[in-house]
Amino acid sequence: MKIVDNNPYHYNHLKMAKTFGECSFLGTFCLPSNDNLPITWYVAWNPDRSKGHKDFFGLGIDFVSPFIVGRDYEEFELLMIIPAIKCQLCQEVIYSSYRHDMRYCSCGSSYVDGGNIAYQRVGGQGKLGKLNLLLRTFKAY
Fold it and tell me: For 76-93, what is the mean pLDDT?
């Protein structure tokens, strides 16, 4: 199973690790309270609690201004499980990051659109389920 991650801002993940310290890319998706703006999320390996650093941080652009948001594990636990679809032919897991983000698997037989808040379209040979971005696991409904 291969998980196809979205990176709409084209961030260089190695450069992010040098800038923000040791971290790993999780994925890009919207928060329900964030006006459907995609946020690229990272997990911090050793957050500095004395500086108020969180377990997870997200980078996004609010129309013209970049922003950063942090979340502790307890706050982020439910957010890291997002709707996804697994293609039955090529075995790729795909997800849509935001409302008008149409995604196809590599063989083109499955697609998804609508973001993680409410999928508008799911189709083809795919099986709908939940993707845990931290554990990198997919569970079909």
Answer: 86
10 Å CB burial of residue 135 (0-12, 13-18, 19+) is exposed
Angstrom distance (rounded) from CA 135 to CA 41: 14
Whether 7 and 21 map to the same domain: the answer is yes
Based on the domain organization, do 68 and 99 belong to the same domain?
Answer: no
At 116, the pLDDT band (50, 70, 90 cuts) reads: low
Q: pTM of the entire structure?
A: 0.73
How many domains are contained in the chain?
2
Q: Is the per-residue pLDDT at 45 higher than 70?
A: yes
The answer on 70 and 98 residing in a single domain is: no
